[in-house]
Design brief:
mainly alpha; 10 helices; globular
Length: 301
């Protein structure tokens, strides 16, 4: 299992993915810290961003440390129970993020297009329910795949053609029929990815048209368009990769192609999310400076 068959590139790949992993941990960890510590960031938007950062920290940790160990050891081994656990948490966290991104797009839609009702619509109770629904949906979706995969019989080769235990590579090793598993993968997983993606896309498109029709200031439009474009680029990277991986009905795609796509949205996207969503934000930058100053110079406060 893994990318360890790329002879001669182990040290380069180890360094590259280690840097990405550290950047993801630092960026998302900083976001969670400032969202908890700074009262100015106790708003619905930063509540959801804090949830997104928690998901990204865990999401990267499910696959990257095991992959890095494989680069160092020259091989990547895992028990069947560990394989199922990795499969479960990968899809639990990935599905939760897919739903949460749609929730965040809805939050921005209400804030920009209906600001007078924002506090009423996005009340603390509503935010908590939406975030909980995202996590619960992801957990139940992952549980379904974990239980279905655990019922299969594996009597062939034990080498998973992937860098982690994903559903399609495991199904390719099963002895019996996997028709039901693939059907659930295409319909249920496809739905959990495609439906939030459509809702997210519609939310941002409505925001863009609203700004064109209602906002007169060119500078306000420019800033809003820049923010929407950057958000849509990261969202498209995540959803697009997931759609290409799980929605096509055929299970005979190139394993190398699958690995490249999954690496893109499971390793690269968690690094980009804190940069695009939060670290460019002046409120977050101010909160980070304030907290760093408090830690480095406590006597000057």
């Amino acid at each position: 299992m893994g990318l360890t068959n790329l002879q001669g590139l182990e040290h380069f790949l180890f360094t590259f993915f280690l840097l990405l992993y550290v950047a993801s941990m630092l960026g998302n960890g900083a976001m969670v810290t400032v969202a908890l510590m700074d009262p100015r960031l106790h708003t619905p938007m930063y509540f959801f961003l804090g949830n997104l950062s928690c998901l990204d920290i865990c999401y990267s940790t499910v696959t990257v440390p095991k992959m890095l160990a494989g680069f160092l050891l020259g091989q990547q081994t895992i028990s069947f129970a560990g394989c199922l656990a990795q499969l479960h948490f990968f899809h639990f966290l990935g599905s939760s993020e897919a739903v949460l991104l749609a929730v965040m797009a809805y939050d921005r839609y209400v804030a920009i297009c209906n600001p007078l009702r924002y506090r009423l619509v996005m009340s603390p109770r509503a935010c908590l329910l939406l975030a909980t629904a995202s996590w619960v949906t992801g957990f139940l979706h992952a549980l379904m795949h974990t239980v279905m995969t655990s019922q299969l019989h594996f009597c062939g080769p034990s080498c998973v053609p992937h860098f982690f235990c994903d559903i399609k590579p495991l199904l390719s090793l099963a002895c019996g029929s996997t028709h039901l598993n693939l059907t659930l993968l295409n319909i249920v997983t496809g739905g959990i990815v495609v439906i939030p993606f459509i809702l997210t896309l519609l939310s941002y498109l409505y925001i863009i048209f609203f700004l064109l029709l209602k906002v007169q200031s060119w500078e306000s439009r420019r800033k809003a368009f820049s923010t929407c474009a950057s958000h849509l680029s990261v969202v498209s990277l995540f959803y697009g990769g997931a759609i290409l991986t799980y929605v096509p009905p055929s299970s005979r795609e190139s394993p190398e192609w699958d690995m490249m796509i999954v690496l893109l949205y499971s390793v690269v996207t968690p690094v980009l999310n804190p940069v695009i969503y939060t670290l460019r934000n002046k409120e977050v930058q101010s909160a980070l400076r304030k907290n760093l100053h408090r830690k480095l110079f406590p006597d000057r406060i």
